[in-house]
Amino acid sequence: MRSPTGRLVAGVLFTLVVIAAYAAYTLNSVRRMREVQAGTIDQNRKGALQLIRIQGDLNALALAMRDMLDNLDGYPLTAWSGQFDRIHGNLDDAIRVESTLSGAGRDPRQTAYLLSSFSQFWDAVEHMTKLAQSRQEREARELIRESLLPRQEALSALTARLLVRNNEAEQRAAQEILEIYDGIERNAYWFLALSVAMVLAVGITVIRSNRALFDQVTELSNQRRELARQLIATQEATLRAISRDLHDEFGQILTAVGAMLKRADRLAPAEFKEQVRETSTVVQEALEKIRGLSQSLQPVILEEQGLAAAIEWYVSVFQRQNGIIVRYQSPESLPDVEPSAAIHVFRILQEALNNVARHTRVREVTVQLQNGPAGLVLAVQDAGGGIPVSFKPGIGLAGMRERAALVGGKLDIGTAPPSGTRIALTLPLAAAPRGGADA
């Protein structure tokens, strides 16, 4: 099966590129909005305030000039000089600030025309003041009526047009910001759709790859389990053949040797009788060991009397051979266990007790056989040091797990309080064995 790593890496890289592109686009859009907001709208609003300030001063000039023409109080025209100077200074400041705020958004010719118009207006005001100071008030009033008032109206109209253009520029800026918002929103939906599509594509790829991988693992697991079943079956067949050879061949040979030694004991001279008897004892002990080994390799008692009797027999043999006291607890009645499953239970018991003898220094071990709600339970518990942290399961434990799986059971290995190890096999008696030792 091809590895999905390349496709997944390509998908991740593509996703990162899309995210980076969208992030760059969003940041650039935000920067543009900030520039439009600060560079156009805010400046236009500040410039509009200055234009309104200019209009206010122009209106004040118009009122002052009308008062000068009406002259209801009888003041000389020079009496308004202070007011004109104050408005002049205020207008110059407003025009200077407004010129800096208009920036590149206005035609330079418009600014130049505005400054030129105000310069001409103040030149005419200065001429009017000189006429008033030389007591030519009639000529001065005529200059106000024919020159200054029309110039003031023209300046007011020019300021109003600049205000209108400022408002139009502000509306255009607001429309541009709205378009930027729309673009960000539209691209956010596209990005979301693309992200969902990428997630779905990557998810489907991972799911398909995992499914293919799990199918392959399942197939390998089934093959391994079948191989384990065949190996265990081969092992049982080999043990049965060895047991039969030991019993039939070596047992008969030793039995014949024992019979010949008995005859030799009767016929041998007195000085050789003791040696013949010692040899006969050695042969008899060897015969007993071969019979015990034959029973351990292939317990006939398991086939003839069942699992409970075989366990009880092996417990006594183990206790005698290893010098470890075995506390055996069994129920009064035990349901029948299929021979194909009973041999696996017996082998698990053998391996568990052999592990106690090999890996612990205990003087006592407990074996429990009981009927539980989940089925038949066989437990072997010792009071040793427990399972070390660096423990790695070996072939023996692997074989025990395989045998438990073959009979549809469950093998639990854990620490028994306060210390020690407990190995428990749970065999559901209602479940049919998955494989047999005789296969």
Task: Furnish the topology, listing elements before pairings.
Blueprint: H1 5-70, H2 81-102, H3 108-133, H4 137-267, H5 270-297, H6 300-305, H7 307-322, E1 325-329, H8 339-359, E2 364-372, E3 375-382, H9 395-406, E4 410-415, E5 421-427
Task: Report on this structure.
The protein is α+β, with helices and mostly antiparallel strands. It folds into 2 domains: 5-206; 302-427, Heat Shock Protein 90 (2-Layer Sandwich). 75% of the residues lie in helices and 8% in strands. The chain has helices spanning 5-70, 81-102, 108-133, 137-267, 270-297, 300-305, 307-322, 339-359, 395-406; strands spanning 325-329, 364-372, 375-382, 410-415, 421-427. The protein has a 5-stranded mixed sheet. Strand 4 and strand 5 (421-427) form a beta hairpin. The two termini are 33 Å apart. Residues 431-439 have low confidence and may be disordered.
